[in-house]
Every structure is written in structure tokens, then in C-alpha cells.
């Protein structure tokens, strides 16, 4: 809920000020997959998860990631090679069993502390610099709406998705 700041402009001698009513510990977790298939446009598949959940959990569980991977498999219609970071939820025993039981799913772990190899980190950077920059959110619903709109816009910006994938070296440069 704390707004990220970016560059802006104003008249010379007048510093722009973004007023924030108060700090909040509310947050929004979002899981995303940047997908690449040779000969097709890049795709972005995502799921938001507000911190006010019925079970009291404030972040994604391994079952939430399982459901995202299953949805991606249905949308993409083929085998998936998943490259992800070492988040503890990705390494949970239930997730390891799920991966082992799926012949269409191959998983590679990124080395620890390697955000430059994760294309989704580039997507979060774009969202922070565009959709969320210089904006004070009134409530969690406003934040969720803004992030969804920003990610939805990115889904149609295949050039940006290609840039995030190519920047990691995980996908060849587009022709």
C-alpha cells in the first residue's frame, strides 16, 4: 500500500508532493508466469492474492502455485518447462510430489539471489514504474484493481514480455 515513487515534473522551484494518508501493512501478492513458445507470441499468466483470505494466510501456498501451473498447462496446451526461484513454497513437499507426478512438467530451480535470471522480476519492475508509480492507493481494493489493469495491459504488450524473457537469456531474441 506504500506507493513507489518515480520521476515526475513540475514548475521550476516547486517540488511535487505525493500525499499519503498513512502507512499500511496491507499488501497484495501476485504470482505470474512469463511464457514463451517458439513461433508464438509471449504470454503472461498471473493470479493475484490479497492478504485478507478466509484461511488467514497472507501469501501463496503451494496449492495456489499448483493451481496456477495447472491453469497454464490448460491454456498453453502442451508440456511446460518451468524455471523459478527458490521460494520456500516452491520447494514444499506437496509441490515436489505434484511435480514428480506430472510428466508434462519439468522444473529447473534458479540459483539463490538471481533476480536477473527471472523474467517475472522484469515484469514487476515495469508494473512498479508504470501502474503503481506516484500513486497513493486509497484502499486494498484500489491497489488490486490498479495492479490487475497494469498486468492486463502487459498481456497485450508482447514486445515488453519478449524483452523480459530475452533479458534473462532464457529465450532467443525475437526475429
Automatic annotation (TrEMBL):
GO terms for molecular function: endonuclease activity; nucleic acid binding. Keywords: Endonuclease, Hydrolase, Nuclease. The keyword Hydrolase applies. Residues 5-143 form the Tc1-like transposase DDE domain. InterPro entries: RNaseH_sf (IPR036397), Tc1-like_DDE_dom (IPR038717). The keyword Nuclease applies. This is DDE endonuclease.
